[in-house]
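User: Reviewer 2 asked us to show a designed sequence for the structure in our supplementary figure. I'm pasting the structure tokens here. Could you produce the per-position amino acids so we can include them in the response letter?
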């Protein structure tokens, strides 16, 4: 069969499409990114966000399979595909020392801007770090777990990351509320890609938790830098005060995100767009 793949809105290599690519290659199928006007037996379209612009190219196929949260929150890869490791040869220019994956899936929190608890349920084990890094052949691991610290299995995996000397980036941010002195010591012992640790600060109450977590980590890892993920609330003053709190901290760079409803497309207030731009442009922040 001839299989076409379409990544609607992926910035990183598309994790699901790399697994689909691996599966169909194992079946002897011809598989690659879809080209307009080319005919395919099956086209897989992957869309992560409900607000991203669709690919409006003209594609021809007997069957089109749409997946990803941007199309359907309930969509999942079937186990017979999900059990494959991603095949990075779909992205030949991707750094051969870098890997992508999840150690856990799910999250126990129920944040109103996040579909993960609805889509994946509570946090649960998913993969081993050796599988993700291909036993060290790709030792720089970008991990997309939504709440790794809420899982005993996840903490064991971080211990293994430290023991194996893998470099890591938890790119969805860590929950500072869960960082105890022991966990801070563990995190400080890891090798962080770019020395960057991402934390979430989505409410005013979390400022204190983030300060405490950063101070604990910096005791043992003074070279750490922090990316502070902040979801803007519907209160302009609260959002401004929360973002302003970190402005003079040279260890912190703020990543501000306007609120987007994961279940429907909402209008973004202009002040949220302006505030996010302000916070992430250092020359004006």
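Assistant: Here is a per-position design you can include in the supplement:
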């Amino acid at each position: 069969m001839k299989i076409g793949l379409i990544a609607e809105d992926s910035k990183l290599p598309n994790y699901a499409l790399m697994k689909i690519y691996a599966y169909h290659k194992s079946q002897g199928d011809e598989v690659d990114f879809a080209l307009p006007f080319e005919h395919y037996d099956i086209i897989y379209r992957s869309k992560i966000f409900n607000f991203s612009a669709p690919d409006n190219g003209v594609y021809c196929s007997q069957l089109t399979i749409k997946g990803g949260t941007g199309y359907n929150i309930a969509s999942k890869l079937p186990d017979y595909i999900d059990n494959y490791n991603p095949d990075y040869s779909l992205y030949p220019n991707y750094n051969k020392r870098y890997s992508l994956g999840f150690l856990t899936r799910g999250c126990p929190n129920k944040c109103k801007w996040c579909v993960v608890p609805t889509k994946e349920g509570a946090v649960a084990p998913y993969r081993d770090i050796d599988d993700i890094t291909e036993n060290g052949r790709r030792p720089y691991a970008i991990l997309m777990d939504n709440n790794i610290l809420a899982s005993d299995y996840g903490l064991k995996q971080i211990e293994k990351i430290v023991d194996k000397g893998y470099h890591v980036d938890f790119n969805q941010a860590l929950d500072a509320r869960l960082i105890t002195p022991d966990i801070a010591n563990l995190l400080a012992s890891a090798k962080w890609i770019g020395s960057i640790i991402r934390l979430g600060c989505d409410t005013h109450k979390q400022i204190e938790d983030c300060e405490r977590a950063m101070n604990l980590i910096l005791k043992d890892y003074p070279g750490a830098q922090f990316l502070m993920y902040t979801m803007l609330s519907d209160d302009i003053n609260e959002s401004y005060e929360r973002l302003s709190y970190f402005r003079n901290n040279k260890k912190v760079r703020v990543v501000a995100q306007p609120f987007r409803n994961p279940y429907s497309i909402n209008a973004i207030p202009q002040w949220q767009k302006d505030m996010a731009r302000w916070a992430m442009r250092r020359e004006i922040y």
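For the response letter, you might also mention the following. The CA atoms of residues 13 and 92 lie 10 Å apart. The longest strand covers residues 39-46.
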